[in-house]
Amino acid sequence: xxxxxxxxxxxxxxxxxxxxxxxxxxxxxxxxxxxxxxxxxxxxxxxxxxxxxxxxxxxxxxxxxxxxxxxxxxxxxxxxxxxxxxxxxxxxxxxxxxxxxxxxxxxxxxxxxxxxxxxxxxxxxxxxxxxxxxxxxxxxxxxxxxxxxxxxxxxxxxxxxxxxxxxxxxxxxxxxxxxxxxxxxxxxxxx
Amino acid sequence: xxxxxxxxxxxxxxxxxxxxxxxxxxxxxxxxxxxxxxxxxxxxxxxxxxxxxxxxxxxxxxxxxxxxxxxxxxxxxxxxxxxxxxxxxxxxxxxxxxxxxxxxxxxxxxxxxxxxxxxxxxxxxxxxxxxxxxxxxxxxxxxxxxxxxxxxxxxxxxxxxxxxxxxxxxxxxxxxxxxxxxxxxxx
Lengths: 191, 187
Hints:
The complex is a heterodimer.
Chain A lengths: L7 H6 L3 E6 L22 E5 H9 L3 E3 L7 H9 L6 H5 L5 H11 L2 H32 L4 H4 L2 H8 L3 H22 L2 H4 L1
Antiparallel strand pairs in A: 1-2, 1-3
Chain B lengths: L4 H5 L3 H8 L3 E6 L6 E3 L2 E3 L8 E4 H9 L3 E3 L7 H13 L10 H11 L7 H24 L13 H21 L3 H7 L1
Antiparallel strand pairs in B: 1-4, 1-5, 2-3
């Protein structure tokens, strides 16, 4: 996750749309709104992908609203129990909730940005232990019996992992697997 | 790089075992051998029944050919490990153990279990210690923040196990944390 130029995750996260309110009239750009109008009128609210929203917001052509994945409804849910929120259903399958959050955070100033950062950090830390626990669990029981043996709640949690968490899950699982393999091998059998 | 992601971030347990096998261990040789030069140094002479210090890889090799007895290191016995296990379960911090105890213990118990008094008990103690320590590093994970992590007395194998995802998780946290000064420099 990050803002590096070649970072695929960042590129994917930039596809998320934010709602922008235009402050100026933009001629001949009506197709962005998907409507029939030829021009964008000042005050029009249009969903713009993140990569385009940047320049519009920095150039002061438009304002933006905090997108739904970070709305107060979601914030309340995260406050209540971060582990039961399905991040993928907020940003779509394979979505990058955290990366998107960082992008929004960078667009905000002082107080709201700090608040945003707190939400992201708090959510990440609350979910991290569960991510690693589940990864360890799956590494130790092996992939074949994985599906049905654990509860529905664990299943729902895994399906709700965002891209960044998935990566961590895979890392933890791999490292536990290596350890397990090493512990089970014996010196005498190797020669 | 063509290496799998997991191998880029960390060495594998087998490699750590190889490193640990450079450590010296006492053996009682059953064959005589002159002092011999190896790449890592000169060892010997072996004069039964006098004790001699050789690297673990050499002890393993001799042991497999039944040409020596391994003298257990002073920390690899039931009393010492029992004591450490008690501390491990009663104190919040990691107890002090040799940095590469897990690797050394496994190799020696694998090839020279007949030189130990109670190898099964040792194995189960080591397993208990490992599990107690794992529970602690899991707690460490919950306290993780973006700038530092201090888990003193963590041993080589444990560091290696948690390294990939601890690093990644800290990297993510760095990104998520709003740092006013860092922000200024970025733009």
